[in-house]
């Protein structure tokens, strides 16, 4: 085989996206490629992004990351899902867990049988039939060789970048500190040839990964990929993150607590809690948001919250010429279901699988962009569901969300669920049927009917199946340590 044409890879940006990309590229493809990362200490990183989903574990396994070492370095805790509070109605709560709901059949998923049991009047809540859900509700956690538990992490974003840097540099990633002043393109092809830094240094490359965050220095400012704005469906556009001291034992779930113009998060780490208020500036001023956050914080703040403005939407193309945008430069939905780090990891995985050793072809770029589009659209719909399917009527913000026109793709899903309890996961969808069901039910979407096969099951058999499942899960959860106890033991091990 002839020598690869694409050998010098330049990663622009050293936030979570930049260091994930740099580490993965060098770990998997060196010495076929050389990786240089350019980051600016003066600009810094967005500094948030601390809640993940279980795909993070798979990615870490591919990358040979040791769980204990990573958790120690990033003060991580375990996460079993998200507790949604005040979403469907004030004082309401449900958990979207990472678990599987009961056991369905090939004809009908579990929730159809559960709906029949509810009709008969004796079934518990849907979460009673899910191990991760019950464990989260009881604030328990344990991993063991005998039983699987589906989990993710809460991590310290700054330490995570530093940890990955510590893995990447010994493998050969060259880090250049400095501000990119100009991007040099080939006059004919438009391909990027080099980054010119303020120091006068020039960093040349064959393939450029734009991880410069919201500014999209290469993909947008240089290559004009275009941005599709989703503000009509996702009205929040501002966040006030702040860290506080821990109060109490860390919970094995993220809290997403809705307020009158958005929501706030609580992410427990080993050494502190990450908090933040997300709000829609059209419905709440910065001063009001600061006052609300200060009033609701549970621990002592470790610094003054700083305002982050963002735009929900996606880059029209993530891969243009010889530049691939990964991370916030490729789009941002909003952090409600903790999907951004997943999108970084999946984009890096796709890039590794389709690495353009002989130069980027239009077919490779189209395939990459098509996959990225489909996935982010599926996530967008899932997030919009939380805002739109609500009974809240207590503020202009919630009335706007209830009444807004939603994407057709989501409207069809909601109609299907309401009419037939039908939920599905398309091949490009990140979220499984169990996730759609938990959120649909949590947002009080009551199906008018369900698969009649559930009615064919004799009541005694259905009762026996559900009761023993619930009892087995409860027994297992009762025997588990609390999340705090397990964490302490695991970190000491
Ligand atoms: C409020 C909020 C909450 C979030 N919560 C979550 C969450 O819970 N879970 C989750 O998965 N995601 C979350 N995210 C998203 C997550 O923060 C990002 O996906 C992640 O941090 C990756 O960011 P990034 O690396 O793309 O950009 P950044 O962190 O902004 O990094 C950009 C990098 O580019 C460099 N750079 C920029 N311009 C130049 C230049 N001219 N010269 C040199 N270097 C330059 C910067 O110095 C920096 O190193 C959240 C985002 C927000 C806004």
TrEMBL record:
Superkingdom of origin organism: Bacteria
One Pfam family here: Trp_halogenase
PANTHER family: FAD-BINDING PROTEIN, FLAVIN-DEPENDENT TRYPTOPHAN HALOGENASE
Name listed for the protein in its UniProt record: Tryptophan 7-halogenase
Organism: Sphingomonas telluris
Lineage of the species this protein comes from: Bacteria, Pseudomonadati, Pseudomonadota, Alphaproteobacteria, Sphingomonadales
């Amino acid at each position: 085989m002839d020598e690869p044409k694409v050998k010098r890879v330049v990663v622009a940006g050293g936030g979570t996206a930049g260091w994930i990309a740099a580490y993965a590229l060098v770990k998997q493809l060196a010495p076929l490629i050389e990786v240089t990362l350019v980051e600016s200490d003066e600009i810094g990183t967005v500094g948030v992004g601390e809640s993940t989903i279980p795909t993070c574990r798979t990615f870490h396994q591919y990358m040979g990351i040791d769980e204990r070492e990573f958790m120690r370095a990033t003060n991580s805790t375990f996460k079993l899902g998200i507790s949604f509070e005040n979403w469907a109605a004030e004082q309401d709560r449900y958990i979207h867990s990472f678990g599987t709901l009961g056991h369905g059949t090939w004809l009908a998923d579990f929730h159809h049988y559960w709906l029949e049991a509810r009709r008969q009047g004796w079934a518990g809540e849907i979460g009673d039939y899910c191990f991760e859900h019950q464990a989260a509700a009881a604030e328990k956690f344990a991993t063991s060789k005998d039983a699987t538990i589906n989990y993710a992490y809460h991590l310290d974003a700054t330490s995570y970048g530093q940890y990955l840097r510590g893995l990447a540099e010994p493998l050969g990633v060259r880090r250049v500190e400095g501000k990119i002043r100009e991007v040099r393109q080939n006059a004919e092809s438009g391909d990027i040839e080099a980054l010119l830094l303020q120091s006068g240094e020039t960093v040349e490359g064959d393939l450029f990964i734009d991880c410069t965050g919201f500014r999209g220095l290469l993909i947008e400012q240089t290559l004009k990929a275009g941005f599709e704005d989703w503000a009509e469906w996702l009205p929040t556009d501002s966040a006030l993150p702040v860290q506080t001291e821990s109060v109490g034992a860390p919970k094995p779930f993220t809290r997403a607590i809705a307020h009158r113009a958005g929501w706030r998060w609580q992410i427990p780490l080993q050494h502190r809690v990450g908090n933040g208020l997300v709000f829609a500036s059209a419905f709440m001023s910065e001063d009001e948001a600061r006052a609300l956050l200060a009033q609701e914080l549970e621990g002592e703040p470790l610094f003054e919250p700083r305002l982050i403005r963002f735009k929900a939407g996606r880059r029209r193309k993530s891969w243009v010429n010889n530049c691939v945008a990964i991370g916030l430069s490729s789009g941002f939905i909003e952090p409600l279901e903790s999907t951004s780090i997943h999108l970084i990891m999946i984009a890096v995985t796709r890039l590794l699988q389709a690495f353009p050793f002989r130069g980027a072809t239009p077919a490779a770029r189209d395939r990459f962009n098509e996959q990225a589009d489909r996935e982010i659209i599926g996530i967008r719909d899932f997030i919009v569901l939380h805002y739109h399917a609500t009974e809240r009527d207590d503020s202009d913000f919630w009335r706007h969300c209830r009444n807004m026109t939603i994407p057709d793709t989501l409207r069809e899903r909601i109609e299907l669920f309401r009419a037939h309890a039908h939920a599905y996961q398309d091949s490009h969808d990140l979220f499984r049927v169990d996730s759609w069901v938990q959120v649909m039910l949590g947002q009080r979407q009551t199906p008018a009917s369900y698969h009649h096969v559930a009615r064919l099951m004799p009541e005694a058999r259905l009762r026996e199946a559900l009761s023993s499942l619930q009892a087995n899960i409860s027994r297992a959860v009762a025997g588990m340590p609390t999340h705090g106890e397990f964490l302490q033991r695991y970190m000491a091990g």
